[in-house]
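dumping the sequnces here before i forget
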Amino acid sequence: MEITPLGDSALLIRVAENFDNAPEDALNKVLAAQRALESIKIPGVIEIAPAYTTVAMFYHPARMVDGGVPEHDLLGWLEQRIREALSNAPSDASRMETRSPIEIPVCYDPEFGFDLEEVAHRAGIDSKQVVDLHSGGEYRVHCLGFTGGFTFLGGLPKKLATPRRDVPRKEVPAGSVAIGGKQTGIYPIKSPGGWNVIGRTPRGLFDPKNNPPTLLRAGDRVRFRAISRDEFERSTS
Amino acid sequence: MNATAIRAGFLTSVQDLGRPGFRQFGVSLGGALDAHALRVANLLAGNDESAAGLEITFGGLRLRFSDDRIVAWGGGEFKARVGSTPLDAGHPALVRAGEEFSIEPPALGCRAWLAISGGIDVPLVLGSRAGDLRAGFGGIDGRPLRDSEQVPLGENTPRVKGLIDKLRSEQIGRWKPPHDWSNTAQRAPTLRYIRGADSDRFVNAARQSFSSESFFVSPDSDRMGIRLDGPQLERTEDVDLLSEAVAPGTVQVPPNGRPILLLNDCQTIGGYPKIAHVITVDLPITTQLCPGDRVRFTEISIRDAHALFLERERNLEQFRRGLESHFK
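..and the predicted 3d for all of it:
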């Protein structure tokens, strides 16, 4: 485990290596670490946020000192607490309970899936096969980021891997389901983006009026269900 | 009670200390780019330090009040007025019902933070009133202030009313904060940083250039980050990393070798290697950088960065206590 300062108010804690060969294993380690670090109360810690192989811990140095941490070596003290917490906790969350898979309806109409043809062409299959493959698998949420609620999903069938577009689009519509390299993801709000858009979901994934603001969380299992244009229109009206 | 934005200015938005706690959902910290300047202005105006105020970019704001309020501001070098009286940064002033607070385009720097007693009373979204202009929520409908728009204000507290009475005749309080807290713009500043989390992913020459040469602020800079032109910072290998956390102050380097210094509206995670992290107490200076400005970087230890952070917090606490006498 490697702990690296991310400035004077945050740390990066690397809990997994070798993501490409064992992405699910990395996710389980990250979730376990997040849980372990949230369960110990460290004075001055503001939040803990997961990514692919790392967990970030954000802290407020003055609140740490107010909480009794010796001020001459905040970093050393934090590192020690983190190592203790992670060595005493299970390092793998694979047996922790997860929510049952969440179904996301997706309309793969070419009018929504601007890059569906391109993805099919690269994979050497037709667009219907892309849809079948994409909606046939089970995915896991690795992390949320980029914009509020952008969902990074692992588990994309290898055949569908497609490099990001050379020139990102200035505007990708809210709900767009897309492929970027070996991952698939969902743009919850309108934003610029470089991933290959293959469809659109009518389901709201990010609403800042709710807490938590996202439908999906890191660790969740996700399935896509192909829906018709009619069903899409009915669910948005 | 409302104030009216007779002129909204170039880019004015409602900001507070942001919305920590939601990074795991991809929500940026946001809030006042110079949180410290807003805290200081709030304390001067008799508010809790976390009250929502206005972030004013490039000036041009005229705000008319419909009741008596205490205001205070800090940031770059601007000419501001309450009614027809000039108001320097860092002093509390009484704006009487019907009078205007106005601020001209800056002589140096680009942003100012205005605190108004009672605070700006827009709804809390995810625990904050800050406008997230990129995602389009918080503040006033997640967008910049418009001409002729009403700005809802909270009630003046009893302690503020005491200060209003006190400033009835002289209008402007003579006291001001210590240090440069309300005047943060510097010409060609040197920013202190601690070594980047991916420092060893850069060739030696890149690390050396970063700490010894000048960089220039590019026009495509905003609340997300400041893009810098200058020596290209070469990486040891041309691969992007798996996305991991970034934070305000992080200096990341995309494949084109031009560093980006991230600010509060930055994304929560990113895949570009991080060569440096500007220390918290120097972030206020970065928020005043304008296109074409020159900037340099110098490395310090994380221990020193923490010591500077703690020293500033202690000074702020002392300042807060010292202000109490004015509210009695």
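The two ends of chain B are 24 Å apart (CA to CA).
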